[in-house]
Amino acid sequence: MRARLVPDRRRSARSIGDDAGFDVEALEGVIFAHRDTMDGDVGMVRLPIHRWKEAPVRRLWRLVLLVQACSGFIVMPWLPGSAAEPPSGTPELRLSLHEAIQAAIDNNANVRLLKERIVAAQSAASTSLGALLPNVSGFMSGSNQTVNLAAFGFPPDRLSGFGLQRPVTEPFDVYNARASLVQNIFSLSLIQRWRAAKTGVDVAGFEAEVTKRDVMATAGLLYMEASRAEAAVKARMADLELSQQLLKLAQDRKQAGVATGLDVTREEVQLENTRQRLLVAQNDHESAKLNLIRALGIDFNVAVTLTDELTLATVESQTPETALSVARENRAELKAQLTRQKLASLSLSSVTSERIPSLSLNGDYGWIGLKPDEALATRSVGLMLSVPIFDGGQREGRISESRSRVRQELIRMKDVSDQVTLEVRNALLTLDSSTQQVTVAEKGLSLSMKELTFARDRFAAGLATNIEITNAQTSVARARDNLIEALFRFNASRINLARAKGEIEQLF
Description:
It is elongated, with a radius of gyration of 41 Å. A hairpin with a 6-residue loop joins strand 7 (about 360-370) and strand 8. About 60% of the residues lie in helices and about 15% in strands. The longest helix has about 70 residues, at about 190-255. About 30% of the residues are buried. It has a four-stranded antiparallel beta sheet, with no helix packed on it. A two-stranded antiparallel sheet has the order 1-2. Strands 3-6 form a two-stranded parallel ribbon. It has twelve helices and eight strands.
């Protein structure tokens, strides 16, 4: 049938190619590109397409595919290009994954709140320490007063013996200045309370570390979400370009008398469907960037451009036992819970120590007199032994409550340990599965591109309608989405595994 394609009924293959704007001497080969690491050089994998020594029309379709491949419609959507430019006058912020993580740490509200909690815990520890150190106070007073001696049991008939004519004295000045000292000598309860307060500082520090790592992981995942959404936009733009080119070719073939109006209509429908999917992808992309901006704590009016893309990085194989060993050593959640157990035990010890007598030193020194220069010195020094006897059961209630808190922390420790184990094992499973998914998705994309090539060849040879081409287009679009999703899952799994092992800082 190819031998019957004569010039008097159809234009030549070269003329159709020239009208469509294609170079029929284009390079052969379809190139897919990906990076082995986030910052590594781009590695190229060539899928060869053998030169066809066939009729010109069939060879033209092959070359059209190659020109489109080189122009970008089958280039993997995570490669640079085709990104929307920010509106004129809008401040632009270019962010790498590392910069996004750092911005999240610096600006996240939860991280800042935890830093303040550390300050508060340190202040509480200082307060507890102050109860063990000397407490010195002083005061000075001056007053003008009268005294009714009758109020002190001196009747008028006895006042004459003291040379006084009436019970109410004349106004006189009294000056008083003194300093007092209270020093705790022994109080086990206060000592344990201070130790508990210091442990509270450690708890606040570990909790801040947990929050910091969670923020890092969340920001990393949101960055990957935005990268996935951006890749989807690029994929839809590639699909749109392909549909436009196929529509142009269908129109040209109809003018040449080798295609029908139905072929053109099918491509027009495919084009409009692709435009619809592009609009959805663009909306999802903007929404993903807004979520990222919110997590980073930056202005919503800033146009964020992501500089890192979804990649397939090399990951060392590791057994669950090895990963769990690293997690138990590094996870701040485990350290925080162990410290909470210690804090609960110290709090219990502080309360139970209230049963033990305490000893303190009290001292007082001052001056008192009618005139400052005639004041007399006074002093006192004493020891005070405080022995708890009965407080209506209040102390025993506090002891029971503290014991319950110790048991609660033990239960939480088991729960936290199990949660860490679950996170590590799930992250390992997902990482292994997503790695295989990427390989399968890459092969699927390669096969779908071959399917598109065969469908075009059949259509060019007059062996089929372009319905096979539209079906192949759909397969290519689906294969692109599968690869994007697999790469996203892989990168998300890397982040989740690093967080589960307590090594999130090393990843970024």
